[in-house]
User: Fold these one by one.
Assistant:
Number 1:
Amino acid sequence: MDLAGRVALVTGAAKPRAIGNLVALGLAREGADLVVADLYEEGFPALAEAVGAMGRRSLGLRVDVLDAQAVEAMVEQAIAEFGHIDILVNAVGGSWSIRPEDIRDGTPPDRPVAAATCSDAEWHQIIGVNLHATFYVCRAVARHMMAARRGRIVNFSSMAGRRGGQPGSVISSGPYAVAKAGVIGLTKQLALELAPYGITVNAVAPGIIESWRGERALASVSADARERIRAAIPMGRVGAPEEVANMVVALCSGELQYVTGAVVDINGGMWSA
Ligand SMILES: NC(=O)c1ccc[n+]([C@@H]2O[C@H](COP(=O)([O-])OP(=O)(O)OC[C@H]3O[C@@H](n4cnc5c(N)ncnc54)[C@H](O)[C@@H]3O)[C@@H](O)[C@H]2O)c1
């Protein structure tokens, strides 16, 4: 897969072992230059070094993707620097550690957040970062891709967006499941609107993945609860972030240009459409 000369914008790639981090490294390995948007700016130097060692250029931008104006400015800065954006991966997401004030706090909440009982603030923040932000970045980038008449977009849904989140669990959340179902709707709508421009729009729906977030979520529950989680996965293990990143990189390649509007489940057999 040759992505030489392509420019990829990946949101949510700065934390080590975040799925977006592995996506960014995978795209660079295939030859793409990178723009990385994240609130966790401490992660930029290590990523820039790894990408530079592969002979690729990178630009790290500190952006809260829930801020539509900041997203517009980020995309304009990326275009000014690189001239074009060929690939967009929207990997930011989650239901905790998603605000500037707690981006470094790797602790899930001490109580479950349910769609039936959550506060207005919880609802707006979680729906915002997972769904609205994905829309803001897609909209800002689509304009440039439509003018160029080519592009690849991959959004992040979740198994929770397919079937709902487990009620009562602190590592899932009701509003999060709703937002991730919305990401599927957004992906399918954009796929229809952008197909005439040669732009593909797909989503991945990971199950339980040992990313930066996943590791902390699993560490926050009892050993018994961890065992129950593993036992519920037909493959008997949680997924590695690379196993999601490999699919995302493939969806960004020139080889899969007839695949659009698809949602790829990556969950060790826990759920299938
Ligand atoms: N880990 C899992 O088990 C799992 C399962 C299903 C879906 N997902 C989805 O996969 C995607 C990646 O998840 P992950 O586990 O790698 O998460 P993560 O928390 O490990 O990484 C998320 C990245 O996004 C950044 N970020 C968070 N909020 C931000 C904001 N408002 N603005 C800019 N950057 C922000 C973080 O700093 C981090 O680098 C998310 O959309 C998540 O919902 C994850």
Number 2:
Amino acid sequence: MTTRPIVSEPAENLCEVTFDSKLEKRIADTLKQYPTPRAALLPVLWLCQDRYGWISPGVMRAVAQRLGENPAHVEGVVTFYTMFRTRPPASYVLQVCRTLSCAMCGGKELAEHLTTKLGVGFGERTPDGLFELHAVECLGACGSAPVVQINDDYYESMTPEKIDAVLETLTRKA
Ligand code: FES
């Protein structure tokens, strides 16, 4: 599996945001699929996160303006859902499942292994900006526990040895 690194736009580039033509077209195509602009808010935010790597206050304002929404409503939605990133992420965001099936199949040990291996706690990133570690609830792949999601990809039936090999591959690619 080849997990693509997240390429995020620096904060200084996202103070005042104007969507480029490619993103604007994706937004326009998305809006056609929903009865109201408000109903398209979540998918439009996903498009923005895909484009910029995260959602800055400037991106929130641009989305609010594009959809004719109140900026406070957009901010409320972004900050409610933990899957929206409100700061530039590391290249690889690791989400370790800590719910029951994974916990019973070695997830707890895997999580401890990762904190030691990366030298960071949950919610923290390595100093080189390569990895970021989070503990999350069920990722919906309980049948192949324990599971770690890295960016958009699932790594299933993980062991400390297997995750070490994955991290090595991702580090080599960086
Ligand atoms: S409990 Fe870990 S994926 Fe469901």
